[in-house]
Every structure is written in structure tokens, then in C-alpha cells.
Design a protein that fits this description.
The structure is a single chain. The chain is built from five helices and nine strands. It is an alpha+beta fold. It folds into two domains: 77 residues, ACT domain (Alpha-Beta Plaits, 2-Layer Sandwich), CATH 3.30.70.260; 70 residues, 2-Layer Sandwich (Alpha-Beta Plaits), CATH 3.30.70. The strands form two sheets. Strands 5, 6, 7, 8 and 9 form a five-stranded antiparallel sheet that branches. Strands 2-3-1-4 form a four-stranded antiparallel sheet, with helices on one face. The longest helix is centred in the middle third of the chain and has 13 residues. The chain starts with 5 loop residues before the first helix and ends in a 9-residue tail after the last strand.
């Protein structure tokens, strides 16, 4: 018989990406965020945007936890009146992207930074005497890697959108 140590259980925390179709009404974001905070769940990333139907918005929520916590999150989201459908995209075929704007110092190494940005297929969206603002779009890992490379040049500030995601299927995400 194999015994599991408490520390091995803690290591089973997984990141999950949920697509939550909600009614496009006042207060829905507050209720969803309140559900997480009331129960002590953390939101790693949250993006809310309109859908092709003006009556609905799509929330892309990235969170983490063990299987029991993730199942509970999904059940609690489904209990909210304004929630139409909750889809756990993790483990299925889905496409996700993030956007980052990063302002970096570039007094004497502007061309080097521009060259690195080119490798990442990033866009220079603002040029100042001693700084550049760079737009990078891609996977979370790509943005993390770009940010790590820019750290040595001196990041002045950055902003990230969080992950947006859709299933790869020809069906709408909620019909998966």
C-alpha cells in the first residue's frame, strides 16, 4: 500500500483555463470575482470581453488548484444565475493568446532591443529618446520569455491583458 505525503498532494495544483459565457449585464463581473474571493480561490488571470452576440460576454478565467478545488469552482460558477455555460478548456484543444505592452530603457542599446523584439515578432509601438514601448502577442510562455530577456535592459513598466482563449473546434466553445 502506497501512502501519499501531504506535500505530494500540494504539488497536484494545476492551472486551468475556464471559458465562462455570461449574460452581458451589470454586476456579473463582480459576482464572479466575489465567488472566488469568498471561497478563497485565486484568479491568476481574468479577461472579460463581448462576444459575437451582444447579449453575452465571455470571461476567460485562469485559476489553479487540485482536482477537488477546480471541480468546486466549476460547480459554483454554474450556480450563478447569469452564467450560461462554463467550459474547462484545459486538456482539450484550445487556442490562447495574451497581449503585453512593455516599456524598456534603451539609451545605448536600442538596435539590440529592436533585434530581439523582431525575433519575438513584437511591434515597436512608441519610440522616445531613452525608451521603447513594445507590443508582444502570443502564449503566456512567449511573453514570460520576452519579459525575462528585457529585464537586463531595464523594464520601466509593463501591462498584460491576461489570457483569452477559444476551443479549436468548428463548434462554439460552449458546445464542446
Amino acid at each position: 500500500m502506497t501512502m501519499k505525503s501531504p506535500s505530494s498532494e500540494l504539488n497536484k495544483q494545476e492551472k486551468h483555463t475556464f471559458s465562462v459565457l455570461v449574460e452581458n449585464r451589470f454586476g456579473v463581473l463582480s459576482r464572479v470575482a466575489g465567488l472566488f474571493s469568498t471561497r478563497g480561490y485565486n484568479i491568476d488571470s481574468l479577461v472579460v470581453s463581448p462576444t459575437e452576440n451582444k447579449n453575452y460576454s465571455r470571461m476567460t478565467v485562469v485559476t489553479h488548484g487540485d482536482d477537488a478545488i477546480l471541480e468546486q469552482i466549476q460547480k459554483q460558477l454554474n450556480k450563478l444565475v447569469e452564467v450560461v455555460q462554463v467550459t474547462d478548456l484545459t486538456g482539450s484543444g484550445f487556442v490562447s493568446r495574451e497581449l503585453m505592452l512593455l516599456k524598456v530603457r534603451c539609451a545605448e542599446n536600442r538596435s539590440e532591443i529592436i533585434q530581439i523584439a523582431g525575433v519575438f515578432k513584437a511591434n515597436i509601438v512608441n519610440v522616445q529618446k531613452d525608451s521603447l514601448v513594445i507590443e508582444v502577442t502570443g502564449s503566456t510562455e512567449k511573453l514570460d520569455a520576452f519579459e525575462a530577456l528585457m529585464t537586463s535592459y531595464g523594464i520601466i513598466e509593463l501591462a498584460r491583458t491576461g489570457k483569452v482563449a477559444l476551443s479549436r473546434s468548428t463548434l462554439p466553445t460552449e458546445l464542446e
